[in-house]
């Protein structure tokens, strides 16, 4: 898989995350490892930072269920609108985590 194909695969997967559910950066990387040969949460984060504006970016969080400080307020508003389970200013990862079961 080329770097451009990996970017597309990340964005396609993020676009599939249902409303009210989330994946961590690491989970996105793990879900694509077999197809891509890559497994880097940091790379997924970089892709989301550069290219994620057209997908539901707020559905990809860090492993603790949080967002970078500058995105917390907007992400929280989106999480509340979608009914995402929260614990204060973070997503409740136990209740909200999603994993793709097919097509990977």
Automatic annotation (TrEMBL):
Top-rank taxon: Bacteria
Matching CDD domains: ATase
UniProt keyword terms in alphabetical order: DNA damage, Methyltransferase, Transferase
GO biological process, one term: DNA repair
Start and end residues of each Methylated-DNA-[protein]-cysteine S-methyltransferase DNA binding domain: 8-70
Molecular function GO labels: methyltransferase activity
InterPro entries: ATL_DNA_repair, MethylDNA_cys_MeTrfase_DNA-bd, MethylDNA_cys_MeTrfase_DNAb, WH-like_DNA-bd_sf
Keyword DNA damage: yes
Annotated protein name in UniProt: Cysteine methyltransferase
Organism: Micromonospora endophytica
């Amino acid at each position: 898989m080329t770097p451009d194909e990996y970017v597309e695969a990340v964005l396609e997967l993020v676009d599939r995350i249902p409303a009210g559910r989330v994946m961590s950066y690491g989970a996105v990387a793990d879900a694509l490892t077999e197809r891509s040969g890559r497994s880097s949460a940091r790379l997924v984060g970089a892709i989301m930072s550069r290219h994620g504006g057209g997908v539901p970016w707020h559905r990809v969080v860090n492993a603790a269920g949080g967002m970078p400080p500058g995105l917390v307020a907007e992400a929280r508003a989106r999480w509340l609108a979608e009914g995402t389970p929260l614990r204060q200013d973070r997503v409740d990862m136990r209740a909200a985590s999603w994993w793709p079961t097919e097509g990977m």
